[in-house]
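In this section we walk through a basic example: taking a raw amino acid sequence and producing a predicted 3D structure, encoded as discrete structure tokens. The instruction is simple. Fold the sequence below.
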Amino acid sequence: MSLTILFAEDEANVRSVLTTFLEIIGYQVTQAANGLEGLNLLKKAKYDLVITDINMPVMSGNELISNIAGLPDPPPVIALCGDIGEVSPNSAVTEIVSKPVSIHTLKAVVQRVLPE
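The resulting token sequence is shown next.
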């Protein structure tokens, strides 16, 4: 059974390309267009990893991460951001990846966070 990733990203083209890449390398990916959509999905299913953009409408990645930290047995979180200063200093982020995201960097970080 493949590992599951929840990917929250408001830019549809980025979400689509990175989801396709993650699926090609063997992960099962569920997409969310913003933090609130991601949180609702997290309340319905368990994920092995969450990847979230920080700057999103409706609910930001920082708000999503804060909500994830309050879940029982929270999954690790990879935050995607244009500037590392965008990530809340006390957040429960496992890794931070700068945008624009290289697929090679994303693969390396995901494999480090989710060893097979």
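Looking at the output, two observations stand out. Strands lie at 4-8, 28-32, 49-53, 77-81, 95-98. The mean pLDDT is 91. In the next section we compare this with other chains.
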